[in-house]
Each structure stands twice: as C-alpha cells, then as structure tokens.
Write a structure and sequence with these properties.
Blueprint lengths: L1 H11 L11 E6 L6 H9 L5 E6 L6 H4 L1 H17 L6
Parallel strand pairs: 1-2
C-alpha cells in the first residue's frame, strides 16, 4: 500500500484530476482495511470521470473472488473511453 499511495501522490501532486475525464473505476472490498478509504478517495480524485464499486463477497483478491466485477469494470471503462462518455454511477 505505501508504494501505491506514493505513486498516487506523485501523479496528482499540484494537479486537480491529472487523468482529466478519462474513465476510472476503483474496485474495493466491503471491509476495507484502515487507511484504504483515503487511498481510494485519492485514486477516485485522479479523474473527473471516476466511479467506486464495492465487491461484495470478496476478499483482497477481487480478481480471484469476483472476476465478474473486474470484467464488467474493464468493459465499462473501455466503452466510456471509446464513446467519450461518463461512467454510469
């Protein structure tokens, strides 16, 4: 987590929404560890076109426990990027 936090800080330093309106979906577990909420908020602030998705019934490895959510998130990001549209909230 420290490496991820420092990467987000470096990317967003002195910039509001450095990814502009590029679509971004942040997947998280229902029971986030302490400190993760701040990181998730920081990740969401990288884009003005971002969305948080809670992975119910999943542990830390969402891609193993809920691959359906990962696949859906990827498809939504690709579709929004291709059509220059906002993610549905």
């Amino acid at each position: 987590m420290p490496e991820c936090s420092s990467d987000v800080e470096a990317t967003s330093r002195n910039k509001a929404a450095p990814f502009s309106d590029k679509p971004l979906i942040v997947l998280r577990t229902a029971n986030s560890m302490p400190g993760y909420e701040d990181l998730q908020k920081a990740l969401l602030s990288l884009s003005t076109n971002s969305k948080a998705v809670v992975a119910e019934n999943s542990g830390h490895y969402i891609m193993v426990d809920r691959p359906d959510l990962v696949i859906t998130a990827i498809r939504k990001v690709v579709e929004a990027a291709q059509h220059h549209t906002k993610l549905n909230h």
